[in-house]
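Morning run. Coffee first, then this:
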Amino acid sequence: MQKFFVLPLFLLLLKGSGLYAQYLYVGGASPSGGLVFGVFNVATCQYCTQFTVPLSTFPNGLVDVVPLPNGNVVGFGNQGQISIFSPPSSTPISSTNVPGGEFVTGAVLAPNGNIYITTYTVVGGVADPKIFEYNPTSNSITLVGEFPAPNDVVLTQPLYLNGILYAFMIDYGNPGGTSYHLVTVTLGNPMVLNIVDTYSIYCGAPAASIPSGPFAGIYGGNLDPNCTGTDVYQSNIGGGATFQCTVPTLLLYALGSVPTGFPGTANCGCSTDAGTVNTPSADLCPNEIFPFVNTGGFLESNDIKQYVLFTNPSDTVGSIVATSNTPNFSFAPPLLTGVTYYAAAMAGNNTGGNVDLSDPCLDFSNATQVIWRPLPTVTFTAANPNVCAGACTTVTATFTGTAPFTLTYTSTGGSAVTQTFPGNSGTFQVCVPVGAAPGSFTLAATSLVDANCSCP
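And here it is:
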């Protein structure tokens, strides 16, 4: 007998981890007809529509939505339909289907910028779950994980927490009756699933996570004891669930976390706006200051603006390493050479002269990259340090830094010589003048320039 799995439709509440900390992206049915997509503000329970599409766009039901950092939005239908939209246009810019007649149960933005999709088929009356990787740029789909029959489980609503891929698992093959779990997922064929939590109540709702910061945890309606479809709960692994908010107006079918850089959250329940950074990325030397240009934005009455360097675009607040009251940074501890930093403006409530990082309307601008490169160095070794007057010896120069290297050096009794070396080591001849008195003979570097920096 063919088995069908019907997952009730409930809302997940997601707050971003630093950027757009109070927003989630939702898709649902409007009372006036059609499927609406837009931003939901956790702090105010306010919804802002971006675009509306006919129900026929996803004729078998909308099950998930994933906003992308470039502003596009990807919708997923129950029977494998995938459509990409560029808000506010309601016309898909591309569409495709998950191959093989798969039923889609959820999707999540992966760290590599692609999207993991949880699916299942029914083989001999037993559920066969799979995970596909979808590249929204090439519109290509690849199978990356399968947990074959006879395990009779369905994976749904994947999410990331602390860099680990999780999913909710419905186990129809449990001898004691259907059971509900949260599992970690290791991709492969076969996938490896490890149970980390078990639930007596499971509403089959969308779910997602905040990886770190003041709002870290799993959010969704999965553990709503009333299974109302409008109540949102926050939970931690093994920690139960806490009521968070009731969603107004819409019957919500799908949701996704709002990624860093997503431009669609402006003016949705919060006026705070950190503006835009207009400076290109930079490679600098340690003695150089990085100034950047931040324009536009809006500050509420109790807001201030500051500027930050951070290391992880997926966790802005949790990876801040330096804060400034002006849009420029000098190289100083704890900054390190060779590390990619991201510079952005941030705006939020004024707490003792600093931006309150727990402000529900905290806002960050887009970011630009900066790397401070190490100063180059050179060491000399002589093939024969004992040289007679009028004779020469071979000297090896060994460099640190980025080739090519331009070295200027002087020696006792000689004039300055400049030579370029294409690699991280090279040789040259040093000659002692005829008639030179016995004693020490000095070779000294007076200037060194590599591909990035100059060391005078």
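Residues 17 and 231 are 22 Å apart (CA to CA). Good start to the day.
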